[in-house]
Amino acid sequence: MSMYSDDFDFKASSSASTGLKKRKKWHQRWWGRLIIIFLTIFLIILTAVVFYLVKTINLIQRGEITPQQLFGQNQSGLARQNLSVQNTSDDPHLGPTDAKVVMVEFSDFQCPFCKEALPVIKEVLKDYGDKILFIYRDFPLTDTHPQALLAALAAQCAHEQGKFWPMHDLIFDNQNNLTEASLKTFAVQIGLSSIQFGSCLQSQKYLAEVEQDLKDGYDAGVRATPTVFINGILIRGAQPLATYEKIIIAELSR
């Protein structure tokens, strides 16, 4: 019996161990781990960029921000649109007609963003109502808001009797209930002649006027509601009070 019978087994084991080291998987090596780290960081950055782009596109489509705002352009540097949108001959308006600042809103009575913007618009009128002329114009988007046109006609019929603004507020307060019957009920609530109002609504007396608002708005660049012009400077979407104040103060200082 050889005294070195185990020598062969030790060498074989040592050789197998060396083979395992040579066959170490790529992700167990230093460069493999480095690749994994870089891939992880890349995926995190890519996910964040995609999320930001989707959110930004959604905000632009909803009109809450404009491309000019996205790229950091000052609102006061925006091109002024055709001031033909400032038509006070037949549109509901508030404030002095000779005001230095004219604010025109194109709105849709069934638009949730218009309702969201309403408190801010009212705050603007409260703070600057004696310095600006505010004009309301209709832009019913009937493809997505099927009752918007009927509501616009109802508000114009109320305007005929000198009660546009009470009807305006009632319609927005009841945005999810704009049937013909409901609008006639609103007319009674604000003290309109129900016979005159019903005849006006039934005949679509102010359809041509609403259609003219739509045409003028589209020609001026309106594509969604609410869209506001302050001395021709276009603002899209439900914006904070500071956005309006910045432009109004600048225009009053001109």
How is this structure best summarized?
It contains ten helices and five strands. With 254 residues, it is an alpha+beta fold. A five-stranded mixed β-sheet has the order 1-3-2-4-5.
Structure description:
It is built from ten helices and five strands. With 254 residues, it is of the alpha+beta class. The protein folds into two domains: 7-62; 75-252, Glutaredoxin. A five-stranded mixed beta sheet has the order 1-3-2-4-5. Helix 4 links the parallel strand 2 and strand 3. The longest helix is centred in the first third of the chain and has 33 residues, at 30-62. It is elongated and about 95 Å long. Residues 1-5 and 71-78 have low confidence and may be disordered.
Instruction: Kindly report the oligomeric state of this protein.
Output: single chain
Tell me the fraction of residues in β-strands, as a range.
5-15%
Mean pLDDT over all positions: 84
Alpha-carbon distance between the termini? Answer: 112 Å
- Radius of gyration from CA coordinates: 33 Å
Shape: elongated
How many domains? The number is 2
- CATH level 4 superfamily of the largest domain: Glutaredoxin
CATH fold annotation of the largest domain: Glutaredoxin
Q: What share of the residues lie within helices?
A: 40-55%
What is the helix tally? 10
Could you state the order of secondary-structure elements as H and E?
HHHEEHEHHHHHEEH
Number of strands: 5
What is the architecture of the largest domain at the second tier of CATH?
A: 3-Layer(aba) Sandwich
Mind telling me the CATH class of the largest domain?
Alpha Beta
